[in-house]
Fold each of these.
Amino acid sequence: MKLFLSLALFAAFLLCPAACAEGVRDGLSLAAGRALPALVPFFLASGLLVRTGFAETFGRLLARPLARLYRLPPAAASAVLLGLTGGYPVGAATAAALLGQGALRREEAARVNLFCNCASPGFCIGLVGLGVFGSARTGAVLYGIHALSALLAGLLTARDGSPQRLPPNGMLPVHAPREGFAAAFCAAVQQAAATSLTVTAFLAVFSILLRLLAPVLAPIPYGQALAGVIELTNGLDRLTALPLSRGGLVTLASFLLGFGGLAVHFQVRALAAPQDLPMAGFTAAKLLHGAIAALLTALVFRLSPAALAVFAPVAPSARGWPAAAAALSAFVLLFAIWGGKRAKNKV
C-alpha cells in the first residue's frame, strides 16, 4: 500500500506540474498570510516557557484539576493552556518539548497530546467568524464550543493513567534542566524556526493534493466539505458554496475545527517523531472532538439561533440536514470511542 501511494504521488507530480506549482503557491501564500503570523509567536512562547520552568510554576495552579479530571501531572498544564489558545499544532509542540525536557513521561505526553491541539481564538473569530460567516460573535461562540469540546473529549480519551498522588506543594518531581534566559531564548527561536518550516512544508504539500484532487472532488456532493477534512483552512474558505442551511454550515464548520484536517494531523506526527511521542488514538480523539463540537453547535443553534447569527450569504438546503448531521455526528462519536479503546494498549 505504501509503495502504491508513493508511485501514485510520483505519477501525479510528474503528469500535473502546473497544478503542483499552483498548489505550492497556495500553500506558501497560506503559510505567509495566515498560519505563520498567528503561530510563530506561540511557537516561541511555548519553547521559552517550557525551558525556563514555567510548566512547573504554572502547574501548581492547575495541579488538582489535572490530577482529578485527567490523571495528569501539573507539568501538563502548559501544554493544555497553550494548546487551547495557541492554535494548531502548538499543543503538540509543547507536549513534545515537555517530553524532551523530562517534565512529562512518555505515556503522559501521549495522553495530553490527544486533546491539547486546538484552533486559536484568532483563527475562530477572524477566519471562521468574520471570514466565512460575517460575524465575530459566531466565531467567538464557535471557539468556546471548540475549547469545551476538547476538554470533554479529553475526559474520554486521556484518563487511562493511574491516579496522581500530589505532594503537599502540589508538584510531582520533575528533572527538567533549567537554562539561563539567553540560552533558553536562542534554543526556543531555533525550535520555533524548525517547527514553522515543518508547518509550511505540510501546508504546501496538502495544497498540492487539493489542487490535484479538485477535479475529483468537484462532482462529488459536498465535496467541498471533504476539502476541509484534508486541509482545514482551504475547506473552511469553501464552505459557503455548499447547499446547506445556516445551521448546517455552522455545525459542519464546528466539526471541521474539532477534527483539524489531515494536514494538521501530519504536522502533529512530524513534531512528535523526534521525541518518540506516541500517536496511537490521535485520529480517533480528533474525530471525537469534532463530533462533540458538532453536537454542541447543533444544540446551541437550535436553542438560541441568535448566538450563532450568520450574516454571510448562504445557499438554501434540504430540510433533512439537522437529522443527517445528528446521525453523522453520532456515528463519528461511536467510531471515535471504539477507535480510542483499541488504541489504549498501544500507548
Note: The longest helix spans residues 181-217.
Amino acid sequence: MSGEAAFRRIADDIRRRIGAREWAPGQALPSRANMAREYHVHEQTVRLAYNELRRDGILDGEKGRHVTVAHPPAMRTLTDVDAEWPYATETTDTRPRRASDDLAERLGVAPSTMLQHATVECLEPGGRSAMLVLSWWRGRRRNHASYAAELGVARLGEEHAHALGLLVDAMAYRVVRTRLDVHGAPVETADLLLPMDRWTIRL
C-alpha cells in the first residue's frame, strides 16, 4: 500500500473511531509514535493523517504537539450578506482576470473586460475557514449605497473545497451579492461560498 493510501486509510479510521466516541471532543489523541506502532506505519504517515484531519476540522492542535478532537463547528446564521466579518480574514488571491459572460452581465460591462479580483477567506476564531468571498470590480474600488443578493448552491472545485476543508464536488451555499451605487449601477459583485454544515441562511 502506498504512503498516500496508508495515511488516508488511517485518517478514515480515526474519523470512524471519533464517530464511535472512542475519543471525545477536547480529548487528546495518542502521540504519533504510539499511533504509528498501533497502525504499523512510519510516524510520518501518522503525521500526514493528523494534518489532513486538522485541515478538515476533525482535530485541533499545533503541528508537532498533541492533537485533540475538535469540538463540532458552531452553526452561524447569515442574515446580512453585506456585513463586515467580525474575525480574522486572509486574502489568498488578487490576480486580475477577464470578465466571463456571467460577470460581464452582473457588472454591466463587455465580456472579456479586465476586472480586479480578490478571494478572501473568512476565518473562525480557532482559525478554521468559515466562508470564502470572491469579489470582482472594474477599475478602482468604489463605495456603494445598496446591494442585491441571490441565494443558490454551487458544487465546489478543488481549490475552494480545499480552502473550506470540504471534499471536492461538495455542495455549498452560494450567495451572489452585487453592490450598487446611488443610481443603482453595479460597482462590485461577489460570490459568497458557505459550507452547508456550518451555516443557516435567512435573507
Note: The chain has a mean pLDDT of 90.
Amino acid sequence: MTNKIPVDLSLDASWILPVIPRERVYSDCSLLIKDDCIVAIVPSGKVEEQYIPRSRVDLGAQLLMPGLINCHGHAAMTLLRGYADDLPLETWLNEHIWPAESQWVDEAFVRDGSRLAIAEMMLSGTTCFSDMYYFPEACATAAHEAGMRAQIVFPVLDATNNWSKDADDAINKGLKLRDKYRSHPLIKIGFGPHAPYTVSDTALQKIATYAEELQAPIQIHLHETADEIERAIGRTGMRPIQRLQDLGLLTPLTQCVHMTQLDANDIDILQLSGAHVIHCPQSNMKLASGNCPTQTLLDNTINVALGTDGAASNNDLDMFAESQSAALLGKMVAGNPLAIDAATAIEMSTINGARALGIEDQVGSLEPGKQADIIAIDFSGVSSAPLYNPLSQLVYTASGSRVSNLWVAGEHLVQDYALARMNSTELKNHALKWQNTIQGHDGE
C-alpha cells in the first residue's frame, strides 16, 4: 500500500519563479499539476518520494513562472499593425484609425484579428488578456477556440458605430453576451465604456448600477492625454476622474487605463475608490500621451497592472517587452533607479494583473490550488549567459522570444515554440488577405 499522491504532470526546471513569495526563486525543483490545477513545488530529486506523476518532463535550463496577464488591448487591431505610425493621438484616431475601422471592421475582421493576436500573445508568454473592441462576441469565440483565458469588456459609446447604435444598444448586446459566457471557466464578460468624453452621464450611471449588481468588471480609458483633461474641465468644470467618482463608477471593480495625467487629488480619489490602474507604457510613449507615475501609485497602495494596448499603437503584444518598458520608464519618471525594480515589473505583469481583473484567487502566481497557467522560458542560449539574477534576466532582456512552452488551465497550448491548437500558416494568410484588401483600397 502506498501513500504517494498521483498527479498528471511533473515539470522539472532549473528555476521556478512563483511570484508569491516575492522574489523567491526555487532551483532544481518541479512543479506538479493535476487536472487544471497546481499541486505543489518540490525538489526534483524528491518528486517520486511523495508523488506518482503520470508524465514527467525535464525542461533543463528553463525557468517556470506564471503566465503573463495583458490587462488592456484591442486584439482585432492587430490587423492594423503599422497602418498609421508616428502621428499624434488625435490625428492618428480621427484621420486614420477611426475611418479605417468604420470601413473595414465587421465580425470577420474581429475574428481574424483576434485569432492573430491570441497566437502572438501566447507565443510570447501571455496566458490571459483583456480586450475592448467591437463585435466582442467574435473575440470571445476566438479565445474560447484557442483555449485562452480572457476578460472581454464590450465597448460602450454614445455614437453609432459598426457594432451598436448607441450606448443602450451596446449595453443590451453586452449583457446578452455576458449571459452566454456566465459559466465559462476561462472567459469573463464586463463593461467597456470607451472614455469619459464618448459616454454620457446617463450611460455611465447605468453601467455603474449594472456592474455593482452583477459584480462585473468595468474598464475605461481615462486621463490618457493633457488635452482630454483640459477639454473635460472646459465642458464639465471638473477633471474626468472626479466626474466618474461622482457618478459612482469608481470602485474596486473599475480598471482605469493609461492614467498619464494625474495630480495629488486624482491619486487620492484612486486610493479611496480601490480602482486599479492599467499602465500601457509603450503605447503611451509612442503616441507621446504622457507618463503614468507608477511608483507613486504603488507607494499609495494603488494596484498597477500592465497592458500592451492594441498593436496599431504599440506595435507588438509582447508583455515581456512591456514589462521592460514599464521598469525603465518608471525609473525615469521617478528620477530614481530603485523605482519599478525587476520584481515589481514582474508583479505588474502577473499577480497585479490578476488582482485588476478580479481573478487573483485563480491565477497570477504559482501556488497550490491555483490554475495551471504557466510559461517556460529557455535560458540555455548564449544571450542568457551569464545568469546572475533570473528576475533581472526576465525583465531586462528579450524574454518574450524565449518562451518555449505555455499552459492555460493545464492545457499545453505552446509546445516547443509552436502553437498546439492554432495553424500559423492559416493565421498569416488571413492577415495577408486583410492587408491586401485594405492597401488595395487605400491605393485607389
Note: The domain at 68-357 is CATH 3.20.20.140 (TIM Barrel).
Amino acid sequence: MAIQNSITLSVDVEDGINIAMRDVFGKEMPPTERVVANTERILDLLEGYNAKATFFTLGQVAEYYPDLIKKIHSKGHEIGVHGYDHHRFDKMAPELARSQLSRAKELLEDLTGEEVAGHRAPAFSINEQTKWALPLLAELGFRYDSSIMPCRAAHYGWPGFPDDVTEIHFSDGNSIYEIPMSTMRLGSRKVPCLGGSYFRLLPYRISQYSIDKISKRNTPVFYMHPYETDPERYPDYYFDELNKVSTVLRLKMKSMWIGRKNFPDKMEKMLRQNETMTMVETS
C-alpha cells in the first residue's frame, strides 16, 4: 500500500491504573509495571515500520522505571515532558506547576543526556484560563508545547486558537511554539478527531479520512496512551473501588476498554499508510 501522508505521532506515557485510582477513587499509588509492558508494545510496533514518535512522559514514570525512558531514547524517539504526576494545570497554582515541570524535565534530561524540547499538558489542560502556563514553559527552556485543543470539547479546549503551528512571544523576550492538536469540521463545529478515544471508538476509515483532509493544510497531530493497547483485566483492587462508585461513573470507566483489542491493528493500518515524524521536527 502506498504511503499517503506524513503525520506527527505522539504517545502520552502514563499508567492508566494509578491515575484512575487517584483521580477517580481517591487512592494514591505509584505507577504499575503495566505502563512498561504497554509502552514496549508500542515501541515494538513502531520498530516494525521504522516509525518515529514523541513520547511525552510523566516524571513519576521516569522515577519508577528509568530503564523504560532509556529504551525509548535508544530507539531514536523523542522524549518530552507530560508533567510530573499528571496534575492538570487548572488544578495547580503556578508555583506548583513550576516545581513539577522542572522536576520532570530534569529527570528526563538526566536519563537521556539530552535537552528536552517539548511539553504536553495532562488532559490538554492549557486553555484561555490557564494560558499563564505558556510563558512559564518558555522560561523553563521548552522550545514547544503541544497541549491546546483548538475547539470546544467536553473537558478541555481553547476555541478560537489557531489550527496551525504558532510562535507565541512574551513580554520577557521569551517565546514558544504551540503545536495544536488536530481537529475537523462537523457541520459548523470543529471537533477533536485524531487519537485517544476517537481512534479507539470510530472506524479506522474515519481516522484516515481525517488525516487525508488535515494533510491538505498542515501536518496532522496524532496522540495515544500506552494503556489503550492493553485489553487485559485490571487488578482486583481496581474493581473493588469501581464497584463503590455510581452506576453512571462505573459505565463511563468501563467504556474505556471499548476498542482496546483492535487498537494495535488500527495502528498498523495507520503506519502502513502514513509516514511519521516527531513533534520537534514539526516545530
Note: The longest strand covers residues 5-13.
